[in-house]
Amino acid sequence: MIELYLDTADIEQVARFNQCLPLRGVTTNPSILARSATGLSRLLPALASELGPAARFYAQVVSTTAQGMVEEAKQINQLPYDMVVKVPATETGLAAIKQIKKEGILVLATAIYSAQQGFLAALCGADYLAPYVNRIDAMGADGVGVVADLQHLINQHGLASKILAASFKNTQQAMDVMKLGIAAITLPVDVAQQMFAHPAVQPAVDQFSKDWHEAFADKLSFES
Ligand code: E4P
Question: In terms of CB atoms within 10 Å, which end of the chain has fewer, N or C?
């Protein structure tokens, strides 16, 4: 089954969507944490208490040197949760990923804007690859196409890396990449909400309710 994540630091929304979706965990990035003014030390225990011990969490390094990223990754990995360390797939980041993998730490290569960049991160051993679908689209390129090319490269070369597609502004983008058979996806709260929002749904449910009450008043189905 595809791994489904929420891309947020909003604990209430995580609790809400965990009621109705099979969440594998939560992804964050430095901007998300900064916007929410919530650090990992407060966020992770709260998320773990909502999602349980099997939940997986993603935290990004903020160090700017390869050695700094490696040291930071080790610290993130020591947190008492199922952690995946996010490392930007820059030249420096790829150097860090190679070293971090020698430590046996789970790594996601992030900020992927092209298939070749993601492919290099996969060759360096990244466990997950995060292509930024909407950000690529917003630059006039083809985000879904990048994901398709990257998935093709992974398959062709028998690589173990999994695509965790990220950066969505609408459900069409999400559906298009899921149709490619990617292993994982992270959705922002508004897109997760849109996934089950269709203007015809509530009127249909209301009509069932109206028809039922006209025929059977307050009886439940098994009482009819
Ligand atoms: C995930 O790795 C990214 O941090 C995130 O999904 C980017 O999303 P955005 O383009 O909506 O900021």
Answer: N
Residue range 69-97, pLDDT digits in tens:
999 999 999 999 999 999 999 999 999 99
> Domain 3-198 adopts which CATH fold?
TIM Barrel (3.20.20)
pLDDT digit string, tens, across residues 183-195:
999 999 999 999 9
Task: Give the residue extent of every domain in the chain.
Answer: 3-198
Cα–Cα distances in angstroms (integers) from residue 184 to residues 149, 161, 178, 200, in the given order:
16, 11, 8, 29
Q: Which residues are catalytic?
A: 86
